[in-house]
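Example 3.2
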Amino acid sequence: MAIQDIFFYLFAALTLICAFLVVANPFTRNPVTSAMFLVLSIISMAGLFVLLHAFFLAAVQILVYAGAVMVLFLFVIMLLDLKEEARRHYKTFGVVTGVVSVGALLAIAVRAITTSGLSTGVQPQAEGATNALGKLLFTQYLLPFEIVSVLLLVAMVGVILLSKKDLK
């Protein structure tokens, strides 16, 4: 087993474990702890990008997501002054609806992977090249890129409106 294989399994396991701990944190109910596990998950994904020789994506992953977006998340958590979440009782309808939704998304993902032709062994044309990535991002994927930016703007405005206190 090569050293790259060992690092791949290490980073993949760290990514999965930290992603699980973001959602189901057994240590504490504090949302800041979940945000820190999200940072660890993002950093270990950047390690996977380095193993793929996509150094630019790894750097963007660290700078943008682990840096700027997580600072924004922590700012929102602090702004909303979220306390430790109290244990609550789950309604049966919500649990069943959530399980059905997750199952449907999983089925869609499996079908997309099986029909995508990934088993043909498609190789990237330019490993880690930023020119090809930039051209793809701003030509073929311009609409999804702009939709994500508008969605982030709407989410930010929504957080500001939700955190405003009534001055009556």
